Amino acid sequence: MRTCSDYLLHLFELLAGEGTSEQLAQVPVEARTAGLTTPELERVERAGKLALRVRHTLDERRRHESELAALFDTAGDLARVRDPDAVLRAIVHRARMLLGSHVAYLSLNDSWAGTTYMRVTDGCASALFQQVRLGMGEGLGGLVAQTARPYATPAYFEDERFTHTDEIDRAVGDERLVAILGVPLSVGGSVIGVLYAADRTPRDFSHDEVALLSSLADHAAIAIDNSRLLEETRDALVELNTAHETIREHNSAMRRAERAHDRLTDLVLRDGNLEDIAEAVAEVLGGGIVVHDEDGTELARAGASPLPWPRDAVRQSRGSGRSVPWRDNLVCAALAGPELLGSLTLVGCREPTNADRRLFERAGVVTALVLLLRRRTAEAEERVRGELITELLGAPERAHRGLAARARRVGFDPGGSKVVLVAPAGEVDRERLASAASRYAGQRHGLAGPHLDHLVLVLPGTDAGCAAENAARALGTSLARPVTVGGSGPVEGLDEIADEYGAACRCLEALLALGREGQGAALAELGFLGVLLGDRDDLSGYVRRTVGPVLDYDSRRGTELVKTLRSYFDHGANLSRTARALHVHVNTVSQRLERVSTLLGTDWWSAERGLEIQVALRLHRLSGSE
């Protein structure tokens, strides 16, 4: 008879041996028929759920890695291939692989006929579909070619946004296509064709899939344009012998453009960062480069001083798809389809040549690709960090060893000192808060993610109060509204994070109850209220923080300041009654209280401080320290 351990071991063997989700789900079913005890069966079922989650996470990461590998392979192909037909076949094949679609195809515009025709297909079976021509504005592809904007439909025949014609609908039906995504291939603001991905079943194309296909289409347009330039140059050499010098200059510009594009593509393939791209473009164009993100934050700079974000120029460049002048500079929007990812500013280039302008615009395409890949990587890391938070707060301590290894992979040290911060996560801006907190934690090598009704951050550090205050200020600035943050810690390792989460939640509740919205603090900074809500084992720490200087003074000098303070409060802050109770002169009491003011500050007698001091004195007496 198989035991609980046998089933758990079988789950691990399936995970290690690339077992399918169906195989993993079958293990708890077998355990239920094996006659295990209820606790053992619950353990096997919980392990089965965790194994399915691990399998799902591994599958998602493989898919993401395959997607990035396909995109990098595409850039490499486009950098090496010069034959136009080979370029187009590579584009279409990579598009199909990148989106995992049933069919991919590419059409080019015929400006003379006013139509767009099918040039290359991959995965198509219908001869009728491969020979179809679309008039400008007809069908999904004709609309993309006419408007220069991406369009997607999950159900083509039911979509009334497009002009349906019998010829087009017959061809699409013959290929049995249902869901279609089309993005424009643009060169210099003009659409030269359309790149498609299509499925034979209903499918909603995501925003990221549209952006990735648009980025690939931009690279494809550049490769097609390079091929066109090369062909034009060859024709000119045959037909225009008298223009030898002009042709030589044209060739030089083209080779320079190819070298620059190959160099930028190589940077992408080698996982170069924005600083590398800025330096390469600045060197090629002989000017300075400043890169901003879509919100105007500087991301990289080479050969130039800091510049303000040229908001209006970026808007103009985004609308036209071309670089635009700004002051004595040139500005180009970095776009993935219609989405603005950032911008480049070429400093000190008032009147660039057409070749330099085109080089600069191609640098914008490469920058958009790097920004898009960086965002995809950041989103993946944010998701992993959020999952770690959930599992740290919900998984048993015995599972923390595996979590520690995963935490190290995202740059988080599971063994160092760390503090736990908690902020309320409302439904209105929960995603914005989670995104801002994830960026904030990532910059500090920490973790962040939602848990229940809270947003939880685990950051390296030893001062929970300071960390909470800084986080409240930063998150409030990002969201343009007050964000209250409760803190707790520090702790070592991962096992006590769940306990500190509870303490941080109590601190958050106390801050909100006290009307301190938009602030950050730890329980230790909330006085006796923090003692009531927090760890009762820290009573001596509260006493030391409140009246420690007076205790130390009495200990060193043999004075009776503590006794005088207690009597002063017991007799309603009346000097005369206090003096009679202590059998000393009123002046003696006054002198002792002046010494207390020196040690604790002149506001020690205020209502709030006085209450905290009285609580500390009472705890000191109850602790038996006198």
From TrEMBL:
The entry's keywords: Coiled coil
Listed Gene3D superfamilies: 3.30.450.40, PucR C-terminal helix-turn-helix domain
Protein name: GAF domain-containing protein
UniProt keyword Transmembrane helix, yes or no: no
Domain GAF span(s) in chain numbering: 83-234
Coiled coil ranges: 240-267
Family statement: Belongs to the CdaR family.
